[in-house]
Amino acid sequence: MFTNRSAAHRLALIAAVGAAALALLTACGDGDDSMAGHTGMTSSAPSATASQQPGAAFNDADSAFAQMMIPHHEQAVEMAELAETRAADPEVKELAAKIKAAQDPEITIMTGWLPAWKVAPSEGDHGGHGMPGMMTEADMGKLQAAKGAEFDRMFAKLMIAHHRGAITMAKTEQEQGASPEAKELAKTVETAQQAEIAQMQKLLDRL
């Protein structure tokens, strides 16, 4: 009898522990789901995904920011690519590669916003009208013709002006935009390009 009672007691205890574990597992599962969004906001990869899939909230300032910043970034990438074969200073080449690596993905993100917002892409204006900091065709021609130390100095001067224009647009977006994703990207642009301007100004001091 003692053995049977012990066995019964043991079975009851196992059942109780199993039920408690199941309840705890269910509670943890719910908690994980609720925290998933918060975790995603602090992770760089989910943040990029979120930026490619903007919410419904946007306004004319958001549309204008994306429409103008796409060709603005495209020109910066074009300038950066010239440095691969024309720059003489290793730091200039390294900075140009950094600019390209940062702005190429941002172009992809912003390009994805426009159809989601049902906004037509900008026709682009590489003449510089309406977009602060954009190089003229004549400026681009001079940069393409330059090589070595001359290219390095010209690249730094023109890219500083180009970055300042981007920062102006980024600040406008942060002040007037409605899309959280666009405003977040604008803040990223402002912070990154301010740092690059400081680096290029130091470059000019020694070139």
Which key features would you list for this structure?
207 residues; mainly alpha; Ferritin
Instruction: Report the CATH superfamily of the largest domain.
Output: Ferritin, core subunit, four-helix bundle
- Overall radius of gyration: 27 Å
Our estimate of the beta-strand percent is: under 5%
Given helix and strand content, the structural type is mainly alpha
What can be said about the biggest beta sheet? none
Mean pLDDT: 79
Assign the CATH class of the largest domain.
Answer: Mainly Alpha
Taking the alpha carbons of the first and last residues, their distance comes to: 96 Å
Briefly note the CATH topology name of the largest domain: Ferritin
Shape: elongated
Write down the domain tally. Answer: 2
Order of helices and strands: HHHHHHH
CATH architecture of the largest domain: Up-down Bundle
Number of DSSP helical runs: 7
The helix content is over 70%
Enumerate the spans where pLDDT stays under 50 for 5 or more consecutive residues. Answer: 1-51
Structure summary, number of beta strands: 0
